[in-house]
Structure formats: structure tokens, C-alpha cells
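User: My instructor asked us to take a sequence, write out its structure as C-alpha cells, and then describe one feature of it. I'm not sure where to start. Here is the sequence I was given:
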Amino acid sequence: MATTTKMSDTKMILTNNPSIGFIASLIAFITPFISAVLPIVQLLVAVVGLIIGLLTVEAKWKERQLNKKKKTPKAKYEN
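Assistant: Let's start with the prediction itself. The C-alpha cells for your sequence are:
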């Protein structure tokens, strides 16, 4: 894959498995509503989930940008 040289391993994993980012963000969103979890743990889970979610979005965005650059426009009129 051509994108492996331009993206880190973490971003490649998140690009290939966006469900990891979605699940981490979902858990980070739900955790503050559970009163049994300590507030420090809630904060840590929220921060980590947010970071993973943002990395996933960034990785998918970079993948799309690289795919756009890889495609070459076809000429309208070929001789």
C-alpha cells in the first residue's frame, strides 16, 4: 500500500479499523454518566477516547487526500 510510507503505524491501524476509534469515542462519551467510576478515571477515559477519535478522523482524512493525489485526471481529448 502506498500510504504506509507517509502515515504512522497508529494512524494506519485506525485507518484500516475505524471501528476502534468509534468504540473508544462511544465509551468516552458514556463513561461520565456512570456514577460508579471515579472522576479522575472518567476524565482519563474521556481524554483518551477523544484523542483516539480525533486520530481516526485525521487518519481517514489523510487516506482520502493521498488517494486523491494518487489518481491522475484523464485528458478530455485524447489523440
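For the description part of your assignment, you could build on this observation: The chain has three helices and no strands. Try explaining in your own words what that tells you about the chain.
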